[in-house]
């Protein structure tokens, strides 16, 4: 998912718009996680980037997406860019070696 979300709409209020964005992100993650993992992979991992626009997007952790959306709402940004790319993930063994 590579998308610029607009935080203004003539009929939809901002809190409802933010909720719909969160729902869309959760729906995308659920859909990607339900796909079968490729051979040799244990699960789906995600690379995430967030920023005011595509050029200024910074790498973030998957768990910090909601915090960044909240900050965008507080800072009254007109829009923000969110990129979530699925990649195969591998569990580490007890010693931390793949």
Q: In short, what is this structure?
A:
This protein has 98 residues and is α+β, with helices and mostly antiparallel strands.
Question: In words, what does this structure look like?
Answer:
By secondary structure, the protein is α+β, with helices and mostly antiparallel strands. The protein has one domain. 31% of the residues lie in helices and 29% in strands. It has two helices and four strands. A four-stranded antiparallel β-sheet has the order 1-4-2-3, with helices on one face. Strand 2 and strand 3 form a beta hairpin. The mean pLDDT is 94.
Helix and strand string, N-terminal first? Answer: EHEEHE
Tally of helical runs: 2
Q: If strands are numbered along the chain, what order do they take across the biggest sheet? A: 1-4-2-3
Can you tell me the residue ranges where pLDDT is under 50 for at least 5 consecutive residues? none
Rg, rounded, reads 16 Å
Give the percentage of residues in beta strands: 25-35%
Estimate the global geometry from the Cα principal axes: elongated
Number of strands: 4
Give the % helix: 25-40%
User: What structural category characterises the helix and strand content?
Assistant: alpha+beta
Largest sheet, described in full?
4 strands, antiparallel
Count up the domains. Answer: 1
Estimate the mean pLDDT confidence: 94
First and last CA, distance: 28 Å
Task: For this entry, give a set of tags.
single chain, 98 residues, alpha+beta, 4-stranded antiparallel β-sheet, 4 strands, elongated
